[in-house]
């Protein structure tokens, strides 16, 4: 698994804080321990030497009450004394005996050299032992000091330092999170802007004034890139629209000429009649395609000149169906289909470009009559996430699930176009529907209708549920 930048920055801060607290904690602990222990050793040596002098003078004056002598020396201290005299050992209390003294140290001292040793007894308590030879009376004096209190102090210190280390590490992690969030924020702006541009808002730019000074280069090159992109897209759209415009007038001339020929059709030989028929079919298709291409190029450039007005959705659909039915491509026989409006959405308002929405409805109704034997139902109802949905159903063969996204691609003419219809399809109708819906911040998808045909679902974001006053449809 690859860690993200944020996680890595956090980890580096956390690790840094951990290493730093181990270093600082370790240093403080061992320095303190060293000085405390050295102090205790010096004090112990002073005391032991003073007591050894006392023992020597007592022994010289012939005192042989060893035990009471040692007890009087120990009184009031947390030390215990051991005396070696004439190869025998004497102790001040029952809690110590001669074997309490480490063997090596005892041998060194008995051979005439003073020595000090810090060690831990078998029971786990820390002690200092100081041994002082007293050669003038053939004795050796040992004093053992209990270091439990020092031990306890050091343990508390270690615990405190450990706690401080944990807190510092946690603070380091928190700081790392903060720093990573803070440093990634400008990138989030960039990604938001890129998303908006990908969604068609080509005039989105990063604000150079608000940008981080360190990221000025990124901001400028990003904006320059989008400038280029926008210019290119607009140039392409202009080119497409120019080409379609240019094609329109020769096509009109051709169509007019063809009409003249068709008027005298009966006088032509049969072969020529067939050729004329083929020519006329293809010319029609060509004209439709140029019309669609022109509309497409307008829709492409459309993110710039789109005018959304707030209208009541049920009135919008009803009017678009009636008006669109009149504009349908030669298939608008009979009465326009009825629109069923869910009572819950009756007053909902949406933001649309009415002309574009009518084109969408016309396209769907044309397809339904072309491939599905006509519209069976148009309905308006609530959708997910504050959306309103308009469904257009037919009773045709429906659309294969594998083709349900492809049919919205440009120039895609699915399997149905071969089976039904006259083959005059351009493959642009649904691409236009998708483009218009995208510009109006809505969407379109196709599913299967409950009666087996295709169901096209248009979704639009709801602006208000109609309670507050607004413009009229
Ligand atoms: P065309 O100009 O060919 O109709 P469209 O983009 O409108 O282009 O449609 C693309 C393809 O989707 C059509 O060729 C057809 O195969 C399929 N299609 C569209 N509407 C329907 C429908 N109501 N029922 C079945 N197939 C459809």
Write structural notes for this entry:
It contains 10 helices and 12 strands. The protein is rod-shaped and about 160 Å long. Bound molecules: adenosine-5'-diphosphate.
Can you summarize this structure?
The chain is an alpha+beta fold and 473 residues long.
What's the layout of helices and strands?
Elements: H1 5-60, H2 66-74, E1 79-85, E2 88-91, H3 103-110, E3 115-120, E4 126-134, E5 139-146, H4 148-198, H5 216-263, H6 270-300, E6 309-312, H7 313-327, E7 339-341, E8 349-352, H8 354-371, E9 375-382, E10 387-394, H9 416-419, H10 429-439, E11 443-448, E12 454-464
Parallel strand pairs: 7-9
Antiparallel strand pairs: 1-2, 1-5, 3-4, 4-5, 6-8, 8-12, 9-10, 10-12, 11-12
Helix pairs in contact: 1-4, 5-6, 6-10, 7-8, 8-10
The structure holds adenosine-5'-diphosphate.
Adenosine-5'-diphosphate (ADP) binds at residues 367-368, 371-372, 394, 396-397, 399, 407, 412-414, 416-417, 425-431, 454.
What percentage of residues falls in helices of 4 or more residues?
40-55%
Percent of residues in beta strands: 15-25%
Helical stretch tally? 10
Distinct small molecules: adenosine-5'-diphosphate
Could you tell me the mean pLDDT? 88
What is the 3D form?
A: rod-shaped
Query: Any idea what the radius of gyration is?
Result: 49 Å
* Number of DSSP strand runs: 12
State the separation between the terminal residues, measured CA to CA. Answer: 54 Å
**What does the main sheet amount to?**
7 strands, mixed
Low-confidence stretches: none
Order of helices and strands: HHEEHEEEHHHEHEEHEEHHEE
Structural class estimated from helices and strands: alpha+beta
């Amino acid at each position: 698994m690859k860690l993200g930048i944020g996680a890595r920055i956090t980890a580096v801060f956390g690790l840094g804080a951990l290493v730093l607290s181990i270093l600082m904690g370790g240093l403080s602990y061992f320095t303190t321990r060293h000085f405390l222990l050295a102090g205790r050793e010096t004090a112990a040596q002073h005391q032991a030497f003073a007591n050894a002098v006392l023992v020597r003078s007592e022994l010289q004056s012939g005192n042989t009450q060893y035990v009471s002598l040692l007890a009087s020396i120990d009184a009031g201290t947390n030390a215990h004394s051991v005396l070696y005299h004439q190869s025998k050992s004497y102790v001040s209390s029952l809690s110590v005996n001669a074997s309490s003294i480490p063997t090596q140290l005892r041998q060194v001292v008995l051979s005439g050299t003073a020595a000090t040793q810090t060690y831990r007894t078998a029971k786990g308590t820390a002690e200092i032992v100081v041994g002082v030879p007293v050669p003038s009376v053939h004795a050796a004096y040992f004093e053992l000091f209990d270091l439990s209190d020092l031990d306890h102090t050091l343990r508390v210190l270690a615990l405190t330092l450990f706690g401080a280390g944990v807190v510092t590490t946690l603070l380091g992690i928190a700081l790392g999170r903060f720093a990573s969030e803070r440093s990634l924020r400008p990138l989030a702006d960039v990604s938001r802007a890129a998303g908006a541009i990908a969604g068609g808002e080509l005039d989105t730019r990063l604000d150079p004034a608000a940008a981080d000074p360190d990221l000025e280069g990124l901001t400028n090159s990003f904006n320059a890139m989008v400038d280029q992109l926008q210019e290119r897209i607009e140039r392409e759209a202009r080119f497409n629209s120019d080409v379609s415009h240019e094609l329109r007038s020769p096509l009109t001339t051709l169509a007019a000429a063809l009409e003249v020929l068709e008027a005298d059709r009966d006088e032509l030989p049969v072969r020529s009649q067939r050729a004329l028929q083929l020519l006329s079919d293809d010319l029609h298709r060509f004209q439709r395609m140029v019309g669609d291409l022109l509309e497409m190029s307008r829709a492409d450039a459309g993110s710039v000149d789109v005018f959304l007005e707030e209208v009541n959705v049920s009135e919008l659909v009803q009017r678009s169906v009636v008006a669109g039915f009149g504009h349908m491509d030669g298939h608008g026989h009979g009465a326009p289909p009825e629109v069923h409006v869910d009572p819950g959405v009756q007053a909902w308002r949406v933001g649309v470009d009415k002309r574009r929405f009518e084109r969408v409805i016309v396209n769907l109704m044309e397809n339904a009559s072309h491939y599905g034997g006509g519209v069976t139902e148009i309905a308006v109802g609530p959708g997910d996430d504050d959306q309103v949905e308009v469904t257009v159903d037919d009773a045709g063969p429906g659309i294969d699930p594998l083709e349900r996204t492809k049919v919205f691609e440009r120039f895609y003419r699915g399997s149905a176009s071969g089976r039904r219809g006259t083959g005059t399809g351009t493959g642009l109708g649904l691409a236009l529907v998708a483009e218009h819906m995208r510009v109006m911040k809505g969407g379109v998808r196709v599913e299967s209708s409950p009666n087996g045909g295709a169901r096209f679902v248009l979704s639009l974001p709801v602006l208000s549920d109609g309670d507050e006053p607004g413009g009229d449809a």
